[in-house]
Specification:
Structural class: alpha/beta
Number of helices: 10
Distance between the termini: 35 Å
Helix content: 40-55%
Strand content: 15-25%
Oligomer: single chain
Shape: globular
Strand order of the largest sheet: 1-3-2-4-5-6-7
Largest sheet: 7 strands, mixed
Number of strands: 7
């Protein structure tokens, strides 16, 4: 079973999924703000924190594992919030587990597939991890997800999380990210599913999506890729406010 933690109270439940090299601790700053209104469940991704996945590196398998945690917690349906790689897992869940998702929040993430350049970058990342280890890869990669003037304490908080990622887990995740299909058509065909895109105006990691469908809301934050960590008050306010508005609209 994937490592998880649950706190707070209030409907609907929020499921929070972290990105590559991050753990549940990514949400430590936003969690107290969200659990004042919601039941909050954070889940680590496969391979992290002593988990030993097997089989092919595939994001639909990651989504299956997340749903096992929901089953164990007795949660049938909830709001899924995925940061970066966690958002890719959310998008993959639409293939087999759309009925488990009441609302979808893609935080600094995308449903699009990697282009040729990005796939080559994943391959370079895999080689770097195998040759120099996770710590060296994280030390090189993680600062790029912050603004140049980011607080050192914020970057170090992210780097500490990378210590929970063994080499094979990082390689498997990079392979799964590299090989994922474009799930934008799948997202858009679920017109009954309210979708929130939270995107940074200075995010070098993600090309912004801007679909015009009525069930998709797009909000841009004054952050880079790690807005969940660097501006948790804004992020938590956006998520809670949007969920509340959507529930009121559907009542």
């Amino acid at each position: 079973m994937l490592r998880s933690a649950r706190s707070g109270s209030g409907a609907p439940t929020l499921l929070l999924l972290p990105g590559l090299l991050c753990t549940q601790r990514l949400w430590d700053r936003a969690r107290p703000l969200l659990e004042a209104f919601h039941d909050v469940l954070t889940v680590d991704l496969p391979g992290v924190g002593g988990d030993h996945p097997d089989g092919a590196a595939d994001l639909t398998a990651y989504a299956d594992r997340v749903c096992e945690v929901l089953d164990a917690e007795g949660i049938e349906r909830c709001v899924w919030v995925g940061h970066s790689l966690g958002g890719y897992v959310l998008a993959a869940a639409l293939e087999r587990h759309a009925d488990r998702i009441s609302h979808a929040v893609l935080a600094y993430s995308t449903t699009e597939a990697d282009d040729a350049s990005a796939r080559a970058g994943r391959d370079k990342g895999i080689s770097a991890v195998r040759e120099r280890g996770v710590a060296a890869y994280a030390r090189r990669q993680m600062p790029r997800t912050f603004r140049e003037d980011a607080r050192e304490a914020d970057v170090e908080a992210a780097l500490r999380q990378a210590r929970d990622w063994p080499e094979d887990a990082v390689v498997r995740a990079l392979e799964a990210m590299r090989d994922r299909p474009d799930r934008t058509p799948l997202l858009l065909e679920h017109s009954e599913l309210p979708v929130l895109l939270v995107q940074g105006d200075d995010d070098p990691a993600i090309d912004a999506l801007d679909p015009q469908e009525r069930h998709v809301t797009r909000i841009v934050t004054d952050t880079a890729h790690m807005g969940v960590l660097t501006d948790p008050h804004t992020f938590a306010g956006i998520v809670h406010g949007w969920v509340a508005d959507e529930l009121e609209r559907s009542a």
